């Protein structure tokens, strides 16, 4: 179902009031974790002004340590809905279980299956049955074939609204959190009709490397990017070191807009 051989035209996935696909650069931005109503609203207003089209924010955080902040859960989802109503931004939130999926589809326009759950086949099937637009991140040690098979699990349940996200893979390199596999963009393009975006934040783990790799993603032909952005990264409850400040995001969004116009 995801194979380009049987569907030569690139797919367009509708998310709220926007579309992910060719001729429309998608910029998803927002905090790693939703921390408070004020934090989310501040970030939402700023990224909207800068040109983002989709607001990201985690309400259910799959943290490496069980002692780290795990997210505001349904309270966070309510803030996402409020931010969407005020700014007009479409919204995306990660789901990690059946119950978080059931809650998320009531409040946000797109759900995200994260790297850690890319091969949670039961969750993939449930996301498939929900019919909700879904962003499927690449597992941190997944091959492109395994990733496309994960997309098949969703699509086989009758949900064609799948967007792929390259977010870096585990390699021997330790200078960055993961290694961005930029070749995944043209490889996916040749194998699949599904839209693909790039997340340079989780790929690098380092704020200073986010903008160069975001530009690289667009140059490679990605349909968009997802960038962690925070009003006060030094105090962020999750992924502060890789989060752009609001002025840094503004600069990046303007640059990408200029890039997109060049094409
Ligand atoms: C995230 O987007 O917040 C996240 C946890 O990403 P990943 O699944 O790529 O690690
Ligand atoms: Mn994060």
From TrEMBL:
GO terms assigned for molecular function: 3-deoxy-7-phosphoheptulonate synthase activity; aldehyde-lyase activity
Domain DAHP synthetase I/KDSA: 19-259
Tagged with keyword Transferase: yes
Keyword ATP-binding: no
A biological process from GO: aromatic amino acid family biosynthetic process
Keywords, alphabetical: Transferase
Spans traversing the lipid bilayer: none
Entry's EC annotation: 2.5.1.54
Protein name per Swiss-Prot or TrEMBL: 3-deoxy-7-phosphoheptulonate synthase
Lineage of origin: Bacteria, Bacillati, Bacillota, Clostridia, Lachnospirales
Originating gene: aroF
Residues of the full protein shown: 71 to 333 of 338
């Amino acid at each position: 179902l995801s194979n380009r051989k049987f569907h030569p035209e690139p797919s367009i996935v509708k998310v709220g009031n926007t579309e992910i696909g060719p001729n429309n650069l998608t910029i998803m931005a927002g905090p790693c974790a939703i921390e408070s109503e004020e934090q989310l609203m501040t970030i939402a207003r700023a990224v909207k002004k800068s040109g983002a089209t989709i607001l990201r924010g985690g309400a259910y955080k799959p943290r490496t340590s069980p002692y780290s902040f795990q997210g505001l859960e349904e309270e966070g989802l309510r803030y996402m809905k409020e931010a969407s109503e005020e700014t007009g931004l479409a919204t995306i939130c990660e789901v990690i279980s059946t119950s978080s999926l059931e809650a998320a589809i009531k409040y946000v326009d797109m759900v995200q299956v994260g790297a850690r759950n890319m091969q949670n086949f039961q969750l993939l099937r449930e996301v498939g049955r929900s019919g909700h637009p879904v962003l499927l991140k690449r597992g941190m040690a997944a091959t492109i074939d395994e990733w496309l098979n994960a997309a098949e699990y969703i699509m086989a349940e009758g949900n064609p609204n799948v967007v792929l996200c390259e977010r870096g893979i585990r390699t021997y390199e330790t200078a960055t959190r993961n290694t961005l596999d930029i070749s995944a963009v043209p490889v996916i393009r040749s194998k699949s009709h599904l839209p693909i975006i790039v997340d340079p934040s989780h790929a690098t783990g380092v704020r200073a490397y986010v903008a160069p790799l975001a530009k690289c993603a667009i140059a490679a032909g990605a349909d968009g990017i997802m960038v962690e952005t925070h009003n006060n990264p030094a105090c962020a409850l999750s992924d502060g070191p890789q989060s752009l400040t609001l002025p840094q995001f503004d600069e990046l969004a303007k640059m990408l807009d200029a890039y997109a116009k060049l094409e």
